Write a sequence for this structure.
């Protein structure tokens, strides 16, 4: 279990935090499903970036992701006995971070597509400008992003805006940072990819102060080849789930 | 009535119904969890009834006449649809509730380790 808290002053070399809370606890939550090939390198990268409070949630993987993550010391590894979806795993991670006393919680994908260097950009507005939620946006920096993913994201943004009332440039990004207040307020029910849009709904509902920052996404053959990613069919399922939650 | 006299929709309904009844027997024979004789009989009644209706469509006229709704059969069908939709909605709600309960249990189970260490 991680005991060391990430000191923000070490991370913000370019600007000293104005927030009086020095030694604030930043926890990185990684929901992972069948990521045994890359999970250790993802954790290593995060550690190199200066963050030691890492929580990996193995969402019922069949490829020993859990065992692989446990090989690295100082990482909290939690295992879902059943596959419940990315949203459910992220929620478990956030609950775990809260139990461990987190002040800021960052969620990021377990396939290595997110660059841990961007964590600094995500937590900065929470520490220095009292934001509650910071959303990493791929669409603010779409360089290298496949065109169909851009189209898919824009459609998802439009649906999220229409159903939940808040316009954001990347409603499906999993790279986000939450203040403790936001983590306490946000209450999602979605287990799968609809979780990401539900967070947007909660931001609107609780009037949380949010902003978007551009993030770098590394699309690799590995991350693009995963079948459980948000493709067309999963997109339809997500849309159905969003509609269902409204009428239900 | 011969097989060549049947319309395509009748053939499709018969094939689907036979498959569904066969699956019901199979599950019951394997003693799968939740498979009761009541469920099997219900399955036979529903799918068997559909086979009966498509093979003997005139039966519906007799049925409607005998229960006195000959002129209002459309209303009956619509009511039937409504009931089916309500049942589907109820089923989906129950599934959703179960899904959430499973997720919550899974979450509590995985968080046990942290709570123990605390």
């Amino acid at each position: 279990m991680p005991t060391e808290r990430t000191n923000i002053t070490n991370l913000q070399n370019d600007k000293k935090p104005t927030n009086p809370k020095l030694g604030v606890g930043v926890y990185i939550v990684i929901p992972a499903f069948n990521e045994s090939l890359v999970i250790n390198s993802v954790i290593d990268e995060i550690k190199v970036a200066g963050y030691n409070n890492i929580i990996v949630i193995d969402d019922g993987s069949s490829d020993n992701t859990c065992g692989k993550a446990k090989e690295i010391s100082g990482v909290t590894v939690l295992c879902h006995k059943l596959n419940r979806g990315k949203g459910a795993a992220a929620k478990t991670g956030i609950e775990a971070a809260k139990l461990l006393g987190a002040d800021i919680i960052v969620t990021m994908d377990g396939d290595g597509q997110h660059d841990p260097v961007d964590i600094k950009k995500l937590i900065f507005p929470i520490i220095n400008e009292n934001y509650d939620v910071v959303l990493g946006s791929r669409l603010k920096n779409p360089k290298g992003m496949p065109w169909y993913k851009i189209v898919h994201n824009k459609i998802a943004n439009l649906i999220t805006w229409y159903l939940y009332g808040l316009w954001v440039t990347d409603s499906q990004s999993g790279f986000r940072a939450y203040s403790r207040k936001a983590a306490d307020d946000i209450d999602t029910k979605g287990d799968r990819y609809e979780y990401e849009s539900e967070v947007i709904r909660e931001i609107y509902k609780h009037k949380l102060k949010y902003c978007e920052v551009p993030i770098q996404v590394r699309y690799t053959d590995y991350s693009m080849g995963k079948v459980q990613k948000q493709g067309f069919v999963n997109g339809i399922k997500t849309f159905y789930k969003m509609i269902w939650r409204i009428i239900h | 009535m011969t097989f060549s006299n049947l319309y395509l929709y009748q053939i499709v309904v018969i094939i689907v119904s036979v498959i569904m009844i066969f699956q019901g027997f199979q599950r019951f024979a394997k003693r799968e969890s939740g498979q009761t004789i009541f469920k099997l009989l219900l399955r036979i009644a529903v799918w068997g009834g559909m086979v009966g209706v498509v093979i003997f469509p005139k039966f519906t006229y007799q049925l409607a006449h005998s229960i006195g709704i000959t002129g209002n059969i459309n209303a009956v069908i619509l009511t039937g649809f409504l009931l089916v939709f309500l049942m589907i909605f109820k089923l989906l709600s129950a599934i959703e509730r179960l899904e959430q309960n499973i997720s919550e249990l899974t979450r509590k189970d995985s968080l046990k380790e942290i709570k123990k260490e605390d």
Summary: The two ends of chain B are 76 Å apart (CA to CA). DSSP finds four helices and no strands in chain B. The interface with chain A takes residues 92-93, 96, 99-100, 102-103, 106-107, 109-111, 113-115, 117-118 of chain B (CB under 8 Å). Helices of chain B lie at 8-29, 37-55, 58-66, 73-117.
